[in-house]
Amino acid sequence: MGRLRQKGKAGAAKAYVTRSAAVKKLQCSLADFRRLCILKGIFPREPRHRKRANKGSSAPTSFYYAKDIAYLAHEPVLKKLREHKAFAKKLSRALGRGEWSSAKSLEENRPVYTLDHIIKERYPTFVDAVRDIDDALCIIFLFASLPSSAKVSPSLVENCARLAAEWQLFVMHTNSLQKVFLSIKGIYYQAEVFDQTVTWLIPYQFTQSIPTDVDVRVMLTFLELYQTLLGFVFFKLYTDAGLVYPPPLDAKKDETGAGVGAFSLQEAKRIDSAPARKVKEVEIDGKRVSSKDVRQTIKSISATTGDGDVEMPDTEDVTPNDAAEEDFVQQPSTSNPQETSSLHTLKTLASLPQSGSSKLFAPYTFWLSRETSRPVFEFIVRSFGGRIGWPSTSGSGSPFDETDESITHVIIDRPVVEKPDETEEERERKRRRKHIQPQWVVDCINAGRILLEENYTQGKTLPPHLSPFEGRDDAYDPTLGLIAEDIGMDEDEESEVEDAIEPEETDEEERPEAAALKAAATAEDATALRAAELEAEAAGVDFGTFEKKAKSARKKVKAAEVQPLPEGEEDMNKMMMSNKQRKLYARMKYGEKKRTEEREDLQEKRKKIEKEKKRQAKS
Predict the structure, then answer these.
(1) For the chain, which residues make up each domain, given as ranges?
(2) Distances (CA, A) of 380 to 74, 234, 375, 450
(3) What is the pTM of this model?
(4) What are the tens digits of pLDDT across the range 32-48?
(5) For the domain with range 365-475, which CATH number is right: 3.30.930.10, 3.40.50.980, 3.30.470.20, 3.40.50.10190?
(6) What does DSSP assign to residue 358?
(7) CB burial of residue 390 (10 Å; 0-12, 13-18, 19+)
(8) Which of 501, 617, 512 is nearest to 555 (CA)?
């Protein structure tokens, strides 16, 4: 006879624990339980059958894995929290009795916990930690912009500002920045560190305030974990780059508003001489034998066997630069020595072409006008190899002044105003420099090349600032053209738009641009797409324009391939689904419908704008 299963002793009732039961088992307060769950990365779970997991009760509650709660019971931080609770009771009792010496002794021995072991547990490798610093950077930059208050101490804000400056210094030093987007929420940045894409958000420089409906205690717990995490990550990044961590801070420059310029990067001192090896000794048959004796014996054996003339290369003398400069030598075939290989000689890493986008602004020198954000554009321009200066009203530390002859661009964000008392020297200097709006800098970075300054000059209406991040395939794309009849074009203009939107099926005498677009639309792999791009380049088509048209053509081809289901077949498919699958399918269709309505709404707005522009142009 099998063993009888008791109700509530097996299955979901044993695998899950309610929050109240977990707090009771750990013997801690609800606030400490929340803190432990955040630090250890434990979160509520949704059981398949809530009633079974709750032992027959249908009351709403949160569930956790019983194994996770048992894991928390052995956490050293939980022990420190209990010690802190006892310490607080003893301190309040000593202060109430007027025992000042005892209170002072207790304060000096206050229990303090560290999170180093938690970081090592949650991130076994360094790549795992780099992959997870997106949220950490967002929290750090947010608290660095908050004013100090009763909830947020000044030392906390100062530490967050220091960590934010250290991250920006590293990105500028390694030229790791890839994309920038100016959004309503703030400025999105994307960098590539250790082959991992890191995206973070920085709020604009406005006066920030903490909303009343935000639980600051929860955010401070996350911040406590993220500060420790970033300390580990930054130390590793700076050490691998050969820099001293933490970077030294000049207090005088910091007081005068130098910002990132108050920190200085210093190379770490390398120790060339290797430490002396310890000679180990062991006792064999009553004789003491050292490791040196063992090496000499091995050398003598090699000499007697005839291998003494062979000299092994000393790998310690080979530097990484020598290894990178070593060329690959083409070897003859072992099966047919007379055969000559038709393959090209392999190139070394140093000889491979490197991307020039990291030094995009290296030939240029920028000057910031007083109304532009100096921390933002100092970080962006220096990350791409450019030089930048600013007036003293924006802070100290500018490497040059406004009269410098090497300035090529002036970043200005105010309308054109003629100065009646302007001197001839100032007019000449203004004609020699290009006055552009801040969006030009960001658009150049996202395009990967220097754009024409004509559309971004001072006082002009700027082109749309599009997000460089990839969205959903069915999302609204403002770069695609509109159908001609929707915006009221004549026949000639309609034919021009149709040629720009999609390649038409023509004979062998079609234009090279249309042929390249058709090949890009039907390309099945990266090789065919690359061939189409080369064909368009040979035809003299701009790469950015070709990429937008090819994207539009691929979407149209993809949409044409999707065939709607026959009438009634969709209902039959739903009948074969389970209740859970049917609900999931309904949510998917609802999301698709909402996105379609949103896309059509944006397209309708664009049609109205295009019609209004055409009407104004005719009048």
Answers:
(1) 12-74, 115-262, 365-475, 526-562, 567-618
(2) 46, 20, 9, 14
(3) 0.70
(4) 999 999 999 999 998 88
(5) 3.40.50.10190
(6) G
(7) buried
(8) 501
